[in-house]
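User: I'm preparing a small set of examples for a lab meeting where we compare how different chains pack in three dimensions. I only have the primary sequence for this one, and I'd like the structure in token form so I can line it up with the others. Please keep the answer compact; I'll paste it straight into my notes.
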Amino acid sequence: MTPSIRRIAFVSWLLVLSVSFVAAADLRIQDFSVDILVDASGELLITEDITVRFLTPHHGIERFIPISGKTPWGENIKIDLKLEDIQLDGGSVAYTSKTRGSDRVFRIGDPDRTIQGTYDYSIRYRVNRAWLFHENTLQLYWNVTGNNWDIPIEHASATIRFPGSVALASVSGISYLGYEGSTGRGSSGEPTGSGSLYFQSGILYPGEGLTIDVSIPREMLPIAPPTVAQRVLYFLDANRYAALPILTFLVMWFLWAKLGKDPRKRVIAPNFAPPRDLHPGAVGVLIDDRIDLRDISAMLVGLAVKGHLSIKEPKKDEYVFVRQPNSADTLSPAEQALFDAVFDTPEIEERSLASLEQVFYKSLPTIKSRLVGQLIEKGYYKNNPERTRGFYIGIGLFTLPLAVYLGIQSASVYLAAAVAISGLVILAFSRFMPRKTIQGVRMLEEILGLSEYIRKAEVNRIEFHNAPEKGPDLFEQLLPYAIALNLTKVWTRQFDGLLTEPPQWYTGHSGAPVFNAILFSHTLSGMTRSMQQTFVSAPRSSGKSAFSGRSSFGGGFSGGGFGGGGGGGW
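Assistant: Understood. Below is the structure token output for the 570-residue chain.
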């Protein structure tokens, strides 16, 4: 320790000591006697008789008693304290009673009058929920005087009286003396002729206290432990923040009902054709209110079906896009942005999927923006569903480090858990918060009808009334929408045996004499996976991806247990 640090420590010690001497010069407690009467129900009737000598004029004393405390894990434990009476020299006296933080505070005395000399104060109150239940014993761990008096206590004692069912010979009692945390032992409980245990101490300096620890066989004091329901209520009463996840759920449910819930859907009827004027990517967004990489892949296959490009697979898992001379006038803004991202200059006629790696990601924000803008322009959404979801995701993610911070600051694992669970509730609701308009829900009904048809129109199993004849044209027409709906395998399986030639826009590498729809399904699945991996690949230096897809109780020292607190003159 450096000389400067020693000097600061010495000055601090002198200041504390001087404050104690000044307080002691004003008043001192000559006797602090506590009587604890144990009722057969477990309730404690506690009477504190405090003899105070005022050396200078004072209004009276202030006494504060903790009514809650924390376990090592930060759980708050609360007792039920009800004031019965306060007297001065056996008569009535003015006082105020209020709760301040975790303490019940009694300010005793007349603010318009001062006193000097020796006076006897009597504070009587009832306490419930102070017993600790063990397998074979009941434990009363009670801080008699408290360790927060700024004046000395010349003598302290505690008498604990039991119902007639309790045999003193079976009761064990010890006491602890000293500053908070001290394991110094005081006197053991001495049986008295009146059937009680008596504890006492000598002088207690400011900050020192008397704590007693008494154990009784459970069969001698048959107090029923709290039920599970009672323990839950006690926990919520002492740890009201535990209700935060429930409150968060109710708030998010209200917000969802007001801001996120879609208008009611009607009965879904099968739909045999793609939704009017809606490309596969837009269908994929409307089905789940998000822009997935699968939606972008479906749009690209849709461009091939429309004849704007073709796809070659010269080798297994290698894909090349070939520009076709079709006019781009019929493309939506999002489709045009996708086409331009693949063929980014007019001179490019062919582009391999591999060449788009660490390049294509730059175009994704434009594609996404145009895709959502188209849906908003058509009146299917009022707000960008990605931004709506992102807003609530941001709030939910923010609460997670906040939970850690609050848990550390409050030394409470329970508070941290409550805040973290609340954040998870917000994250869970975020996916449901984007809201469609009535027009959007009507379009969703068409999409769900198409999904129903694709799922169930299996060969030789289900025939829909007025359903179109299955053939290459129908297969190609609905294939991009099946990809967007994640039904590629279901749709291609239905054409096994019906298709003998690959689509004109696709050239494979196998050279097999007979085209097989099931094998083509595997090819499509591999191609879309490769597309999705390529679309989001970005150099490490970019630092990000351009796309977002889917005090303790229990005994053993002075100052522990219930009770305690302290006080002083005023």
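A couple of notes for your slides: The domain at 19-225+558-569 is CATH 2.60.40 (Immunoglobulin-like). The chain has three domains: 19-225+558-569, 239-261+383-434, 266-382+438-537.

User: Perfect, thanks.
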